Amino acid sequence: MTPPPLFPPFDPRKRNHPGQREYINKILFVKPKVPPFRCYHDLINSKITNLKYLKKLNAFIGLFPKNSLAEQFRHHPDVFQIEDDIDVQIFIPFKGKIVPKTQMIPWGIERVGAQKAWYYSQGKGVRVGVIDTGIAFDHPDLERNIKGGVNIINPLLSPYDYNGHGTHVAGTIGAVNNEYGVVGVAPKVDLFAIKAFNKDGTAKLSDIIKAIDWSIENEMDIVNMSFGFNEPSPTFREAIIRAQQAGVLMIAASGNKGTRGRIEYPAQFDETIAVSSINEKNQISNFSTIGPQVDLAAPGEKIISTWPNNSFRELSGTSMAVAHVTGVAALILSRYRQLSTYELAEVLKSSAIRLKNISSFAQGAGVVNAAIAIRSP
């Protein structure tokens, strides 16, 4: 016999005012190691629609009626966290010109010592997920390294990039070393396009959480998160914690507001590596948000990388800095596969080069350096 629901089901016939006719997307995390069946049963009986279960995160996403039902679920014995979905926006402080296609090594690749590390490692076999606007996987500087992906927004479509941001990030991480365009930090890495942001650079937090679940399910080693927002989301924190426990190293942007004291989420979470931006003069970029949670600095100003339509473009932002750190992490992990996420993070920080007369608020442990890191473990 099916047990009765813990809460009375939502009855659409009892709508007494217009507000009850509205629905809102919510994110619900079941307590760790608690089977989801009872919670699922109660959600179904409460008429929660568009319900999706995220297996690796043990979480649900669905449309709740705007009434007291969500508050009731806060007291459900199996529920760990529940909150409203929010919008997230990618912000690019500077977008430069489209540049020529002749082979070049961007200044950021040189600054992090990638070339000196290529003798030992080029990132082969490391699976890097790029949660972003997708990737232009037909780009001649990327297509050899694109190994798969997913369109979180519309799973029936490919994760192709119609914005450009994700393609630019992917190029800095792993553009192929050939006779064309640019070279990435880890030119033989396995790249996966995880499209959670649309062509306007906006995303739902629920889609980003789905992207993290996909990353765990598909065994990503490293996840690049070149985005940020100011909302202290408890469900997002839980997703980050569970991904770290699953062995995923997550690297995130400190933010582009140029403020001091409070960096953005998810970089602010202890479970991520928070990255600020420097320019060619080894100065912290004016747009870079800084604070005590910053772990590392990396090149992020006037970075040339891949762009849709087989082209290349110069962009600035902490997004670009994150991509450099992700690439260096891939180089290290490719050579030292036994490293845990905690050990890999420690190698990145212990091998960084500190900038003089700049506080740890701005640079964390210093500027990431592949040449030193590759010989550290």
UniProtKB/TrEMBL annotation:
Residues 123-366 form the Peptidase S8/S53 domain. The keyword Oxidoreductase does not apply. Keywords: Calcium, Hydrolase, Metal-binding, Protease, Secreted, Serine protease. Its cofactor is Ca(2+). The keyword rRNA-binding does not apply. The active site is at residues 132, 165, 319. Pfam families: Peptidase_S8. One of its GO terms (cellular component) is extracellular region. Gene3D superfamilies: Peptidase S8/S53 domain (3.40.50.200). It is found in: Secreted. GO terms for molecular function: metal ion binding; serine-type endopeptidase activity. GO terms for biological process: proteolysis. Belongs to the peptidase S8 family. This is Peptidase S8/S53 domain-containing protein. It comes from Vulcanibacillus modesticaldus.
